[in-house]
From TrEMBL:
The keyword ATP-binding applies. Residues 334-472 form the Aminoacyl-tRNA synthetase class I anticodon-binding domain. It comes from Kineobactrum sediminis. Keywords: Aminoacyl-tRNA synthetase, ATP-binding, Cytoplasm, Ligase, Nucleotide-binding, Protein biosynthesis. GO terms for biological process: glutamyl-tRNA aminoacylation. This is Glutamate--tRNA ligase. Catalyzes the attachment of glutamate to tRNA(Glu) in a two-step reaction: glutamate is first activated by ATP to form Glu-AMP and then transferred to the acceptor end of tRNA(Glu). The gene is gltX. GO terms for cellular component: cytosol.
Length: 501
C-alpha cells in the first residue's frame, strides 16, 4: 500500500499559517513512509472562493518550501483537484445514499429548523436535529415537491443512546456521543455538496490512506465514519493534530495574532525559519534541537513524537528563531540578496514610486518617505494623533468600525478598500478626509503620508489590520463593555458585514 496524504484548503481568504502547519505534517508523514502528498482545493463555497486566494495558497506553500505530488496546478491521475470541477460526482453519490435509505430529502424551511431546535433545547436535549425531528407527512412532502420548494439531502444518523468509537493514530480510541450528531446536510439546495460529503468522496476516490487534520474535526468524525460505512469503503487512518493556539491558550485567530502567511512574508521572516517554527508546533526532534531545516525534519520525522498539548504560536519566539537563521545561515552576500528580493525589488518599487516621486527633492528623501511600507509595528504614541480632529473615543470607534469593515473585504485591492471606507464614512456622517485621518497615523505613523488607501493596498490586509489594532490599543483600546456597544452601533450602519471574525 502506498501511503497517500493530502491538504485541502478553502480559497476563501489569505493563506493561513494553520494550513501550512497541517500541510507540513502531511508532507512529512507521506515522505517518511515513501508515500505521496496531494493538494486539493475545496472551493464549494462559491460566494467566498476566489482564484486570487487559490493562487495565494499555492504561492505561499511553495514559498515555504512545501511541494506536492498532485494538485490543481500540476495535475495527476486522480484529478480534477478542485471540488468545483467535480460537482457531478457528489450529486451521484448523494442520490446513491438516498436510494440506499442512508440519506433523505428534506424540505424543512429555515424557520421550521429554528423552531425544532428551540423545542429540543426546551426539552433539555442537544440541538442536533435527528431524522425523526425533520420528518414530514408523506402528503406534505408531495405538496412541497409539487410546489417546487427548495430541498436538501441529509444523511441518516443514529437516534438512540450510545457512542461512536473513532480510532485515532495519536489519541487511541475516542468515544463520541451519538446524541450530539445531527442529520448532516450532504447536498445543499443549490446542488453544492457540504464539506462532509465532498471530503469523504474525494478522499476515497483519490486513494487517501491517512487523514491528518486539525483536532477541530474530531466531532465530525462520526459522520465521516458513517459515510464510509454507507458506501462500503475502507476507512483511512485518522490522525487529529493539536490546534495552534494564542499565548492565552485560545484558538489561534487573527484578532490576537496575525494568521496570514503573507503577513509573515511581508514582515521579512525567512521561509526556512517560519517552516522550522511550524515544525516545532507540537513536535520535536530526537535531540530536542529547536533549529532545524525541512530536510532534517523529514529525515527524523516520527508522527508519534507529536505532543497533544495545544502548541502556542508565539510571535516573539518566532522572531528569536528567525534571528538565528539570519545570523547563522546567511552570509552577508546572501543577506543582501534576501533584502533586495524581499523589499527592494522592482515590483515593490514600481508600486511606491508613483506616490513618492511627487514628494522627492533628493533621492535621500525616499527612504524616510517609504520606510513605513517595509516596517512592522510602528512606534506610534497617543501624541502621534495630536493633529487629528476628534476625541480619542471617537477615533477609536472609527478605527474599530474600519477594522471590521476591512475584515469583510473578500478581494483586497485599492478600489475595494476605498469603497469600504468611503461607505463607512458616509454611514457615520463623516467627511472622508476626517474619517481617514486617524488611519493615516495607524498605517503610516504620520498624518503627512501619501494616500492611506494606496498604502493599505501595498502592505496588504493582515499588515493593515494589525497596524489598526495597534493604533486602537495605543489610544486606550476597547473594553468588553465598549466592544458590545460598538458592535451594536456597527450592525445598525449601512450593509458591509458584521463585527464577527
Amino acid at each position: 500500500m502506498t501511503v497517500r496524504t493530502r491538504i485541502a484548503p478553502s480559497p476563501t481568504g489569505d493563506p493561513h499559517v494553520g494550513t501550512a502547519y497541517i500541510a507540513l505534517f502531511n508532507l512529512c508523514f507521506a515522505r517518511a513512509h515513501g508515500g505521496e502528498f496531494i493538494l486539493r482545493i475545496e472551493d464549494t463555497d462559491q460566494l467566498r472562493s476566489t482564484p486570487a486566494s487559490e493562487r495565494a495558497i499555492l504561492d505561499s506553500l511553495r514559498w515555504l518550501g512545501l511541494e506536492w505530488d498532485e494538485g490543481p496546478d500540476i495535475g495527476g491521475a486522480c484529478g480534477p483537484y478542485r471540488q468545483s470541477e467535480r460537482m457531478e460526482i457528489y450529486g451521484e453519490y448523494a442520490l446513491q445514499l438516498v436510494k440506499q435509505g442512508n440519506a433523505f430529502v428534506c424540505y424543512r424551511t429555515p424557520e421550521e429548523l429554528e423552531q425544532l431546535r428551540e423545542q429540543r433545547k426546551a426539552a433539555g436535549n442537544s440541538t442536533a436535529l435527528k431524522p425523526s425531528d425533520l420528518a414530514l407527512p408523506g402528503e406534505e412532502v408531495a405538496r412541497r415537491s409539487d410546489a417546487g420548494m427548495p430541498y436538501v439531502i441529509r444523511m441518516m444518523v443514529p437516534e438512540g443512546e450510545g457512542s461512536c468509537a473513532v480510532e485515532d493514530l495519536l489519541r487511541g480510541t475516542i468515544e463520541l456521543d451519538w446524541s450530539m450528531v445531527d442529520a448532516q446536510i450532504l447536498l445543499k439546495s443549490d446542488g453544492m455538496p457540504t464539506y462532509h460529503l465532498a471530503n469523504v468522496v474525494d478522499d476515497h476516490l483519490m486513494g487517501i490512506t491517512h487523514v491528518l487534520r486539525g483536532e477541530e474535526w474530531i466531532n465530525s468524525a462520526p459522520k465521516h465514519l458513517l459515510l464510509y460505512q454507507y458506501f462500503g469503503w475502507d476507512l483511512p487512518v485518522f490522525c487529529h493534530l493539536p490546534l495552534l493556539r494564542n499565548p492565552d491558550k485560545s484558538k489561534l485567530s487573527k484578532r490576537k495574532n496575525p494568521t496570514s502567511i503573507l503577513y509573515y512574508q511581508r514582515m521579512g521572516f525567512l521561509p526556512e525559519a517560519l517552516l522550522n517554527y511550524l515544525g516545532r508546533m507540537g513536535w520535536s526532534m530526537p535531540d530536542e534541537s529547536e533549529k532545524f531545516s525541512l530536510p532534517q525534519m523529514l529525515e527524523n520525522f516520527d508522527i508519534h513524537r507529536v505532543s497533544l498539548g495545544g502548541p502556542i504560536f508565539d510571535v516573539d519566539k518566532l522572531r528569536w528563531l528567525n534571528g538565528l537563521w539570519i545570523r547563522e545561515d546567511l552570509s552577508q552576500e546572501q543577506l543582501a540578496q534576501r533584502l533586495v528580493s524581499w523589499a527592494y525589488n522592482a515590483d515593490n518599487l514600481m508600486q511606491v514610486l508613483p506616490h513618492a516621486q511627487q514628494r522627492l527633492e533628493t533621492l535621500s528623501d525616499f527612504a524616510p518617505l517609504a520606510a513605513f511600507l517595509v516596517s512592522g509595528t510602528l512606534p506610534i504614541t497617543p501624541a502621534s494623533f495630536a493633529e487629528v480632529k476628534g476625541e480619542p473615543e471617537d477615533l477609536i470607534a472609527n478605527m474599530q468600525f474600519a477594522l471590521w469593515r476591512l475584515e469583510a473585504i473578500r478581494e483586497w485591492d485599492r478600489d475595494a478598500v476605498w469603497e469600504a471606507l468611503k461607505d463607512l464614512a458616509n454611514a457615520r456622517g463623516y467627511k472622508i478626509k476626517d474619517f481617514l485621518a486617524p488611519l493615516f497615523v495607524a498605517i503610516a505613523g504620520s498624518s503627512a503620508s501619501f494616500s492611506v488607501v494606496d498604502s493599505m493596498a501595498m502592505i496588504g490586509p493582515d499588515m493593515s489590520r494589525m497596524r489598526i489594532r495597534h493604533a486602537i490599543d495605543v489610544l486606550g483600546g476597547v473594553s468588553k463593555k465598549a466592544a458590545k456597544r460598538l458592535e451594536k452601533e456597527y450592525q445598525q450602519l449601512a450593509p458591509g458585514g458584521t463585527a464577527r471574525e
